[in-house]
Amino acid sequence: MLSKLLLYLTNHVIAHVPFHAVRRGWYRHVLGFEMDAHATIFLGAYCYFYRPCRRGGAAVRIGEGAVINRDCSLDCRGGLTFGKHASVSPEVMFITSEHLKDDPGFGVRDEPILVGDRAWIGSRAVILPGVTLGEGAIVAAGAVVTRDVPAYGVVGGVPAKPIAERSRDLHYELNFRPWFE
């Protein structure tokens, strides 16, 4: 019962509070997210979880300067890790749980998603269970990523396929923490 209440409050109240510090405090202290002081989760994030992380759920780690933009879906059940200065555009879906198609009981498998340092994910992309996006990887807008993306690889399409490589000479740092957002 407590988990359902926390799920409701997280997604229908806290996610819409326009003060970054309030949302950040909730994610860290109530849900148990590990968030760097310079990481940001914008308004409208929708979180899926079985129970808060501090009570045995999967870990969620958000690295230094990482930005998770508006209206993203964060499936915390299998675990999520965002590296330093990772940039997630609006409405991206991270799905860490899936039903087993051949299981007569319609069982579920949870697998973590890892997003490397300085990876960049375009709007409305979907990242599926067990995927690792390497350092500096780019996922094009609208792509559905079913397999790992190597460091500095650029993928796009449905399902996502390699389309280019990114420069390995990346030095930028994201430092965006608005009061109202």
TrEMBL record:
Listed Gene3D superfamilies: Hexapeptide repeat proteins (2.160.10.10)
Ranges in coiled-coil conformation: none
UniProt keyword terms in alphabetical order: Acyltransferase, Repeat, Transferase
Keyword Thylakoid: no
Matching InterPro entries: Hexapep, Hexapep_transf_CS, Hexapeptide_acetyltransf, Trimer_LpxA-like_sf
Enzymatic class: transferase
Signal peptide, first to last residue: none
Entry GO CC: cytosol
CDD domains: LbH_MAT_like
Top-level taxon of origin: Bacteria
GO MF assignments: O-acyltransferase activity
EC code: 2.3.1.-
Family to which this protein belongs: Belongs to the transferase hexapeptide repeat family.
Protein name (Swiss-Prot/TrEMBL): Acetyltransferase
Species classification: Bacteria, Pseudomonadati, Kiritimatiellota, Kiritimatiellia, Kiritimatiellales
